[in-house]
Design a protein that fits this description.
The structure holds two protein chains of two kinds. Chain A is of the alpha/beta class. Helices cover 35% and strands 24% of the residues of chain A. Chain A is built from eight helices and ten strands. In chain A, a hairpin with a 2-residue loop joins strand 4 and strand 5. In chain A, helix 3 packs across helix 4. Chain A is globular, with a radius of gyration of 19 Å. Chain B folds into two domains: 176 residues, no CATH class; 83 residues, no CATH class. Chain B is built from ten helices and four strands, in the order H-H-E-H-E-H-H-E-H-E-H-H-H-H. Chain B has a four-stranded antiparallel sheet with strand order 2-3-1-4, with helices on one face. The longest helix of chain B is centred in the middle third of the chain and has 43 residues. Classes of the chains: A alpha/beta, B alpha+beta.
């Protein structure tokens, strides 16, 4: 699905924000991308969702080397990727329903279908009572859920989330995590960039770690042994 | 209901865009007036050309003493005997007075002046007599006779009219360029204001054409509104000018009444400006989006 080989990236003439990054995301996989603020997580995601081109190295997306693709070939690829932006990027003049429906409109889906899908998805994320609200009237958590609904409405093959739990408390963060896991069970490849260690500990998905632009991993996170398994391993008292 | 009314980008809120209809109204008004002037002048030149082709005027000067009747009779006889002359008619004193009226006013002054006698000659267009030969014949019959085939004065008039037409065409071209520049400026302002929204659309897979349609659709809508205002103002102005010219009734000013086809051409101006606005907006956006990855 996504393969990086020795990828480097710099903005303009500045220093490299990513150095010799190699990673592989298999179809249907679920990964975390951790690292401190400024480590390069957002830059790495930007390359995957085709907002930037790498300065060097090879990036393969859905089996295609992106350096060989023309500009015209990129929009269809972008439509196969759902992105939850760190700052939500909701359009303030559009209602919640219109914001969520945006990717479908861009994809040219029929109006009746769009309304039905968007309404259903808003029920799924618990915002069925806010469909006509404007983003400035929503709380941080509600905006986050609108952004997530917009990212998944086209049933993308890949979902990228940049600090998706940065503005919500732990209980909502876990609820959002379950949403991502449900999508992953339906076949979507998921990559979540976060520095929320608590969130990573609650899910047992492999994690890549970025530090100073260098990527390490993936690290497997083993689930804690279940009480029954612990009991059987210890044997009868 | 709100679902489909909303544009993806809040272009309606742009302050610069609110002025676009008024700017377009002024542009359409100027372009349409220039075009209307050009068309009525062109029609007037055609009429003058048609009216004067195939006619000559023989002018026999008034003698110092006595009358020119004998000279006029000889000239008339010579003209009627000339091949290619269809008819020859001496203009009466009242007709000459009528011709001079715009300059000398009505009254008896014309009768008191030593005016030349005029003979209105119709010639066959296909076999018109040679002017130099005819002049010699006329001078033999009536010394001092002058033949005016109106060519020189008509040529000057047509040259003047064409110059005015070129100026009008220049005005149309300039105001069209002004329309293009206005739309480019407003579209670029919109691109800067909505950079965030445009980037979002781009990242969720919108092709450049999808983003451009947002701008071009609004440019078309606003330009049509402005064009309609400009069109109404032009129609009112042309109507009033036509009435004013008709009230003068001297034939000095070109007729400001337009034919249905010419009104159709005027109605096409706002549509043309709207289409130019739409295409300009699209090209501006498409060029700007090429800078995105």
């Amino acid at each position: 699905m996504v393969r990086f080989q020795n990828v480097g990236m710099r903005y303009g003439l500045g220093p490299e924000v990513l150095r010799d990054v190699s990673l592989h995301l298999a179809p249907g996989s679920f990964h975390f991308l951790s690292g401190a603020s400024g480590a390069g997580k957002s830059s790495l995601l930007k390359i995957i969702y085709l907002a930037c081109r790498p300065s060097r190295g090879l990036v393969s997306l859905f089996g295609a080397d992106i350096s060989t693709l023309s500009r015209e070939a990129l929009p269809p690829l972008r439509r196969r990727i759902g992105v939850v932006f760190q700052d939500f990027r909701l359009l303030d003049h559009l209602t919640v329903l219109d914001n969520v429906a945006l990717p479908l409109r861009v994809a040219g889906v029929k109006r009746a279908e769009i309304r039905e899908h968007a309404s259903e998805l808003l029920r799924w994320v618990g915002l069925e009572n806010c469909i006509n609200a404007l983003p400035p009237t929503l709380s941080g958590g509600e905006k986050q859920r609108v952004a997530i609904a917009r990212a998944v409405i086209t049933r993308p093959q890949m979902l990228l989330a940049d600090e998706p739990t940065g503005n919500v408390d732990d209980s909502i963060a876990l609820r959002l995590l379950r949403l991502f896991e449900e999508l992953n069970r339906l076949g979507t490849t998921v990559l979540i960039a976060t520095h929320n260690e608590n969130l990573i500990r609650h899910a047992f998905h492999p994690r890549y770690h970025l530090s100073g632009g260098e990527l390490t991993g993936p690290f497997r996170v083993a689930p804690p042994p279940s009480p029954a398994r612990v009991a059987s391993a210890e044997g009868p008292a | 209901m709100m679902f489909w009314k909303a544009r993806d980008l809040a272009l309606d809120a742009d302050p610069a865009r609110r002025f676009l209809p008024w700017l377009v109204a002024m542009i359409v008004y100027l372009a349409s007036l220039a075009l209307a002037g050009m068309m009525s002048l062109s029609a007037a030149v055609d009429r003058w050309d048609r009216g004067l082709t195939g006619t000559l005027t023989v002018q026999i000067p008034a003698p110092a003493t006595g009358t020119a009747d004998d000279a006029v009779a000889r000239a008339l006889a010579a003209l009627r005997a000339t091949p290619g002359v269809e008819s020859a008619r001496v203009l009466g004193a009242d007709e000459i007075s009528a011709l001079l009226e715009p300059w000398l006013g009505s009254g008896t002054l014309a009768g008191e002046l030593p005016l030349p006698r005029l003979i209105d000659v119709r010639v066959r267009a296909a076999a018109a007599p040679d002017i130099e030969g005819l002049t010699a014949v006329m001078r033999a019959a009536a010394p001092g006779a002058v033949i005016d085939d109106h060519k020189k004065s008509l040529d000057r008039l047509i040259a003047l009219a064409h110059t005015v037409e070129l100026v009008a065409l220049g005005i149309v071209v300039l105001v069209t360029l002004a329309a293009v520049a206005t739309v480019i400026f407003i579209t670029r302002t919109g691109l800067a204001i909505h950079a965030g929204g445009i980037e979002l659309l781009h990242l969720i897979g919108a092709a450049d054409g999808y983003v451009a349609r947002q701008f071009q659709g609004q440019a078309l809508e606003l330009a049509l509104k402005g064009g309609l205002i400009g069109c109404v103002l032009t129609a009112a102005t042309v109507f009033l000018l036509g009435r004013a010219a008709a009230a003068l009734g001297t034939g000095i000013l070109p007729d400001f009444t337009l034919s249905p086809a010419q009104w159709g051409a005027l109605a096409a101006v706002p549509l043309g400006v709207a289409v130019i606005g739409m295409v300009t907006a699209r090209m501006t956006v498409m060029a700007a989006l090429r800078a995105l990855p």
